[in-house]
Amino acid sequence: MTNPLLSPSPLPYGLPPFACISAEHYAEAVEAGLSSQLQEVSRIAANPEPATLENTAVAMERSGRLLTRAAAAFFTLVSADASDAIKALETELSPKFSAHQDAVFMNRALYERFAAIDAKGLDAESSRLVQEYLKEFRQSGIQLDDAGQSRLREINAELSRVGTAFGQRVKEAMKSAALLIDDADHLAGLPEEAVTGAAEGAKLAGHDGKYLLSLIQPSNQPALAFLENRTIRRRLYEASLARGTDGGSLDVRDLVKAAAGLRAEKAALLGFANFAEMVVDQQTAPGSSEVLAMLGRLAPAAVRNARSEAEALAESAGHILEPWDWAYYSARVRKEKFDVDEQSLRPYFSLETVLNKGVFHAATQLYGVTFHERADLEGYHPDVRVWEVRNEDGSGLGLFLGDYYTRESKRGGAWMNSLVEQSSLLGTRSVVINNLNITKPAPGEPTLLSLDEVRTVFHEFGHALHGLFSEVTYPRFSGTSVPRDFVEYPSQVNEMWIMWPEVLANYARHYSTGEALPQDTVDKLNESLLWGEGFATTEYLGAALLDMAWHLLSGADVPDDVLAFEAKALADAGVAHPLIPPRYRTGYFQHIFAGAGYAAGYYSYIWSEVLDADTVEWFKENGGLTRSNGERFRSELLSRGNSRDPLESFRSFRGRDATLEPLLKRRGLD
Fold first, then answer.
1. Percent of the chain having pLDDT more than 90?
2. What is the pLDDT of residues 28-49, one digit of tens each?
3. pLDDT at site 480
4. Using 50, 70 and 90 to split pLDDT, how confident is the model at 1?
5. Long-range contact set of residues 5-9: C-beta below 8 Å, sequence gap at least 24
6. What would the mean pLDDT of 495-509 be, rounded to a whole number?
7. Distance separating alpha carbons of residues 668 and 661, to the nearest angstrom
8. What is the predicted pLDDT for the residue at 442?
């Protein structure tokens, strides 16, 4: 059978024909793609003609199409539907991807051609393309001698292996730490649909008649807000926090120490004081000291607010508060203070309505785009749905895939990724995916969301819009291919529309009666927005500062005792609240140790939120949900990708640099 990945997909927008692709096809296509791109690179580097934009930089942008196509489809499965065969293949291929990157960006002949390109007369995007390639060569070790490059290759290969192993152990640990409950009475307080989901989960795991409380990636688990049984809350909380550091076969402490040491050595080889400095050099932040200064400015106020919240919770509880009590009593105090019971809101937030009359509706009102479900197109799993997105004039913009339900083969959390990236050079339009981990209801029952899950749906769709609206020439700059500390900004902005009156009125309707969410409930929700911000900001800052602590180390300073280091790092940063663990502890901090995507970059969420909060103020000042506002945001920012400095795009949209005050006000830190 012909491997369908070896040639461009015949499906609309280049959607991979997943139904026809086997694990063997991925292996063959990736290997062929690695080989063919190296041949293309060799031809570019050996070209006897003088280096030009077209024969060097543009040629590089055209190269590797097979590898890009195969890797995008393969890594989608690694994250969202990893069979044993896919996991084994990931372990085998990850070091090869790392070695391939090194082979390209440690190629001195190729670097010399880029360095020889005459940038005079180039348009701004083409000039930026050349400069960004030169920067990547330098950050990849082109300046090192042969011995230095050899060691760097070894480090990169080992980091790839360590990151893959960390991600796989964390995924398995999340499954194995799920709490098995024998008696339904122990689940008192848990929403009915959650009990049904726990029963179904236990049945699928071979424990028919019991209940399985599965975990999500962060420290605090949703069920803690509902479970009346304090012992069950404690067991669930402790199971969550022990992941990866319990001494079992899935313990990751050896991998953490290896990653920290290797990253510190890599940074030193490349001339940086530490890995954090190396990472921030690629971001919009001026340096790691500026990042630490901002986090340090926020921490005292966040912890102060958290202490005030803790006092109110202890008063409501009538006993000494423990960490596993926080979410439960926070929900109770929220109801007492603001008469808001988030559980009673779920019937107003069905996934179908949130998508069609909330997320899609807001995008149509702002940008004129429309969404058309394509039942004729298949994703990589039966749960995946496909929509064609069209511009206001009916022209095709791309495809949006939604994969909303949790399953054993999917990693935790929520994310967006691209299967095809827009590029006018290649004539491609975007194909993007949103993945969430919502519990699947019983057959025939609606999928009812918590307010937090509604927020996640809107957030991830903001990433999707960033990808779909891309209008760049070069694939290197497409969509979300921006610095890590800018990438969260458009997605955070999209959360604005959740509570925007005309959007909320359109989607927040009872799934069975169609009744709108009562206005007095909406008013109470708005009044309660600051409740819990002390906790939320403190747990986030704990994770961000823990990340920085791991990556400010020199190789000689990598600790032997991982948990002692974590405790000291949190205490030194002033965020070691006894009732609030960091959002991710070291043992399951997949953002920073499963690969290097957010390593020394978890701060980016709040760094981006400075831009986001200022942007929300702009929308409020300029009439809100209007086509003209949407067009300005789309044309000046969302469509630009990394084709110009993202902060320049922000200034072009906003008319000035961002200020911190809107963020401080939003989080109650002013």
1. 96
2. 999 999 999 999 999 999 999 9
3. 97
4. low
5. 5/29, 5/66, 5/69, 5/70, 5/73, 6/32, 6/66, 8/65, 8/69, 9/69
6. 98
7. 10
8. 85
Q: Which of 90, 309, 460, 539 is catalytic?
A: 460
The domain boundary residue, chosen from 497, 519, 545: 497
The reply to whether 238 and 261 lie within a common domain is: no
Q: Which two tokens stand for residue 314?
A: 């202890």
State the CATH number of the domain containing residue 35. Answer: 1.20.1050.40
Rounded distance between C-alpha atoms, residue 106 and residue 113, angstroms: 13
Q: Is 125 an active-site residue?
A: no
- Mean pLDDT along residues 480-496: 97
Task: Answer yes or no: do 364 and 456 share one domain.
Answer: yes
Distance CA 158, CA 262 (A): 8
Long-range CB contacts (< 8 A, 24+ apart) of 378-387? Answer: 378/17, 378/18, 378/19, 379/18, 379/403, 380/16, 380/18, 380/73, 380/76, 380/77, 380/80, 380/81, 381/80, 381/81, 381/407, 383/407, 383/440, 384/433, 386/15
**CA–CA gap between residue 527 and residue 520 (Å, rounded):** 10
Is there a single domain that holds both residue 300 and residue 419? no
- Walk across the sheet containing 430-438 and list its strands: 370-373, 385-390, 396-405, 430-438, 415-420
Residue with tokens 């991925």: 26
CB burial of residue 164 (10 Å; 0-12, 13-18, 19+): buried
Q: What is the pLDDT of residues 272-316, one digit of tens each?
A: 999 999 999 999 999 999 999 999 999 999 999 999 999 999 999
Question: Partners of 398 in the beta sheet?
Answer: 389, 430
- Cβ neighbours, 10 Å, residue 510: 14
Q: 109 and 11, same structural domain?
A: yes
In this structure, the answer to whether residues 354 and 436 fall within a common structural domain is yes
State the CATH number of the domain containing residue 375: 1.10.1370.40
- What percent of the chain is modeled with pLDDT above 70? 100
In whole angstroms, give the CA distance from residue 132 to residue 296.
Answer: 31
- 249/252 Cα distance (integer angstroms): 9
How many domains does the structure of the chain reveal? 4
Contact 539, 582 (CB under 8 A): yes
383 within 8 A of 433, measured Cβ to Cβ: no
pLDDT tens per residue, range 76-95? 999 999 999 999 999 999 99
The mean predicted confidence, pLDDT, of the chain is 96
Residue 509 lies in a domain: no
Q: At residue 61, does pLDDT exceed 70?
A: yes
Does the residue 565 lie in any domain?
Answer: yes
- Rounded to a whole number of angstroms, the CA Rg of the chain reads 25
Q: How far apart are CA 107 and CA 109, in angstroms?
A: 6
Residue 452 has pLDDT above 80, yes or no: yes
Q: What is the pLDDT of residue 596?
A: 60
Tell me the C-alpha distance between 240 and 216, whole Å.
9
- Taking the C-alpha atoms of residue 593 and residue 191, their distance in angstroms, rounded to an integer, is 34
Q: How far apart are CA 453 and CA 461, in angstroms?
A: 12
389: left (phi over 0), alpha (psi -120 to 50) or beta: beta
449, 470, 497 - which closes a domain = 497
What is the domain range of residue 476?
349-497
C-alpha 92/C-alpha 88 separation (Å) is 6
Same domain, 576 and 540: yes
Q: What is the CATH number of the domain that holds 573?
A: 1.10.1370.10
Tens of pLDDT, residue by residue over 142-178, are 999 999 999 999 999 999 999 999 999 999 999 999 9
Q: 3-state SS string over 357-397?
A: HHHHHHHHHHHCCEEEECCCCCCCCCCCEEEEEECCCCCEE
Q: In the numeric block, which tokens belong to residue 144?
A: 């090192």
396 and 444 housed in the same domain: yes
The predicted pLDDT at position 670 comes to: 86
* Phi-psi label, residue 190: left if phi above 0, alpha if psi -120 to 50, beta otherwise: beta
